Amino acid sequence: MRFSGFATVLAVALAACSSGKSEGAQSAAASVSANAPRHPTSGLAVVPLTVTSKTGTHKFKVEVAGTTEEQAKGLMFRTSMGADEGMIFPMDPPRMASFWMRNTVIPLDIIYVGPDHKILNIAANAVPYDETPLLSRGRVIGVLELNGGRAAQLGIAPGDKVEW
Fold first, then answer.
1. Which of 110, 148, 151, 156 is placed for a possible disulfide with 125 were both Cys, Cβ 3.0 to 4.6 Å?
2. Which residues sit opposite 146 in a β-bridge?
3. How many domains, in total, are found in the chain?
4. Over the chain, what is the mean pLDDT?
5. Of 51, 48, 3, nearest to 151 (Cα)?
């Protein structure tokens, strides 16, 4: 999963002008412990993430896409992901977000997390390979990707708390 349209061009421009990380991505990546476990496929740091909803507390192990390049690639070309796995895209400073499914093989729930750590909106069951922009409904501090349909299966909804 990656940013669409203008956001992709902006991400590439930022990457070309910096050491490979945007300022916000640098602080997000710096917050991930150097000793964090690494995902066997992506090599990204894996951290615990919790969603607290009306149906209970749901725990995940998520890969952290902290740099501009990691965020541009996201879960593209991946053919599977565990039920309690996902990917978090930290955004510092908070901003509007737009994702698409170019080169993304598996359906995903794209969960937009606001500055108060509450879910703003969910683009449920995003269609593989679809390039339609899927927009946040406000500024976000992170975007969480889970397997398509997982949020509904667990009763995860807007207003639920997300912590990582």
1. 148
2. 109
3. 1
4. 86
5. 51
- Do strands 134-135 and 85-95 pair parallel, antiparallel, or not at all (unpaired)? unpaired
Give yes or no for a contact between 151 and 157, defined as CB atoms under 8 angstroms apart.
Answer: yes
Per-residue tokens: 151? 């949020």
Phi-psi region of 77 (alpha: psi -120 to 50; beta: other; left: phi over 0): left
What is the predicted pLDDT for the residue at 33? 63
Residue count of the chain: 164
CATH of the domain at 136: 2.60.120.1140
Q: How far apart are CA 94 and CA 141, in angstroms?
A: 5
- Give the separation between CA 113 and CA 15, rounded to whole angstroms: 24
Integer Cα distance of 88 and 65 in angstroms = 6
Q: Which domain holds residue 19?
A: 2-163
Residues 6+ apart with CB under 8 A from 22: 11, 14, 15, 67, 68
Tokens, residue 64: 């952290």
Q: How far apart are CA 12 and CA 164, in angstroms?
A: 27
Please report which confidence band the pLDDT of residue 31 belongs to, taking 50, 70 and 90 as the band edges.
low
Give the pair of three-digit tokens for residue 20: 């490979």
